[in-house]
Design a protein that fits this description.
It is a single chain. The protein is α+β, with helices and mostly antiparallel strands. The protein has three domains: 12-119, Alpha-Beta Plaits (2-Layer Sandwich), CATH 3.30.70; 123-203, 2-Layer Sandwich (Alpha-Beta Plaits); 212-340, RRM (RNA recognition motif) domain (Alpha-Beta Plaits). It has nine helices and 18 strands. It has helices at residues 53-61, 91-101, 139-146, 177-187, 212-224, 231-237, 242-245, 278-285, 316-326; strands spanning 12-13, 41-45, 66-73, 80-88, 105-106, 109-110, 112-115, 127-131, 152-159, 166-174, 200-203, 256-257, 264-270, 291-298, 305-313, 330-331, 334-335, 337-340. It has a five-stranded antiparallel beta sheet, covered by helices on one side. Strands 12, 13, 14, 15 and 18 form a five-stranded antiparallel beta sheet that branches. It has a four-stranded antiparallel beta sheet with strand order 3-4-2-7, covered by helices on one side. The chain is globular. It starts with 11 loop residues before the first strand and ends in an 8-residue tail after the last strand. The structure holds one DNA strand of 7 nucleotides.
DNA sequence: TAGAATT
């Protein structure tokens, strides 16, 4: 069921045609004799949102032996970011993958398979958002306007879904961030030849940077399916401080802590990935209220997360809301178990 | 005035 029609407004490949060859901008061999992966490592763009790592691997593994592959996902929500990397053992298989899979239509997407550029800071944050374009300007014309500032990796003009007419906004991704910076300096506020209005050129927002509000909305929707009533009814019911409840036997041995992290409710978070770090916990729990401390438990030798961590929150109701919302939450391919910390821990 | 392009 992957095969379907292309959608209008799909990005057109530039800079050397579809999946153009990588520029020889890296050494062929490292000083230690390590193999050059510029001819085996591919980047795959415009993957369907619901494609999994396994499906991704299966698709590209059908070409040849894969050294490694990775579907890139949002660190917090685990959602696919729509692109991934495949490193083949044999450069010939990488070439074959480009020739046979680039342009493949999967659901509403047309995937792009091309050589990955060597990863470096200089190629990050090189995407520009352009608005105020003349409706008559084509993608090619937009590229011509911007190409004087550097090598364009991809470009796109957004069009009305119904009429197909340009909406006057688009994106330009340069090879290098400095090229994008120069393009802003040279073109922001300028009128293209013959245009009536000046265009606006600025760095594009990063679509993967979800706000706490967006995360909350996402969590509310997922937890609302698992709980009978609206969550805010619970929220208003309890509002007592940890100090006031201290000593109450009803909740003895549960959650409440008063250590170096300060008084608060200690929450146990289980089934984190080995790559999890403190920022993940901050971003997961921060939207629910006052968080005073987070800790990822790591293996002493590997420094990888051992699969669990702790979060301390100041207010009971906010902690309870976080637990109700995040327990059972799917983070990537894992389902979190979240509860107040108890004296006898993680037996399940 | 908004796309999932660097692990």
């Amino acid at each position: 069921t992957w095969l379907q029609n292309n959608s209008p407004g799909s990005p057109r490949t530039v800079a050397g045609g579809p999946a153009g060859p990588a520029l020889p901008n890296g050494p062929l061999l490292g000083t230690n004799g390590a193999t050059d992966d510029s001819k085996t490592n591919l980047i795959v763009n415009y993957l369907p949102q619901n494609m999994t790592q396994d499906e991704f691997k299966s698709l590209f593994g059908s070409i040849g032996d894969i050294e490694s592959c990775k579907l890139v996902r949002d660190k917090i929500t685990g959602q696919s970011l729509g692109y991934g990397f495949v490193n083949y053992s044999d450069p010939n298989d990488a070439d074959k993958a480009i020739n046979t899979l680039n342009g493949l239509k999967l659901q509403t997407k047309t995937i792009k398979v091309s050589y990955a550029r060597p990863s470096s800071a200089s190629i990050r944050d090189a995407n520009l958002y352009v608005s105020g374009l003349p409706k008559t300007m084509s993608q090619k014309e937009m590229e011509q306007l911007f190409s004087q500032y550097g090598r364009i990796i991809t470009s796109r003009i957004l069009v009305d879904q119904v009429t197909g007419v340009s909406r006057g906004v688009g994106f330009i991704r340069f090879d290098k961030r400095i090229e994008a910076e120069e393009a802003i300096k040279g073109l922001n506020g300028q009128k293209p030849l013959g245009a009536a209005e000046p265009i606006t050129v600025k760095f594009a927002n990063n679509p993967s940077q979800k706000t706490g509000q967006a995360l909350l909305t996402h969590l509310y929707q997922s937890s609302a399916r698992r709980y009978a009533g609206p969550l805010h009814h619970q929220t208003q019911r309890f509002r007592f401080s940890p100090i006031a409840i201290d000593g109450m036997s009803g909740l003895a041995g549960v959650g409440l802590s008063g250590g170096a992290a300060g008084a608060g409710w200690c929450i146990f978070v289980y089934n984190l990935s080995p790559e999890a770090d403190e920022s993940v916990l901050w971003q997961l729990f921060g939207p629910f209220g006052a968080v005073t401390n987070v800790k990822v438990i790591r293996d002493f030798t590997t420094n990888k997360c051992k699969g669990f961590g702790f979060v301390t929150m100041t207010n009971y109701d906010e902690a309870a809301m976080a637990i109700a919302s995040l327990n059972g939450y799917r983070l990537g391919e894992r389902v979190l178990q979240v509860s107040f910390k108890t004296s006898k821990q993680h037996k399940a």
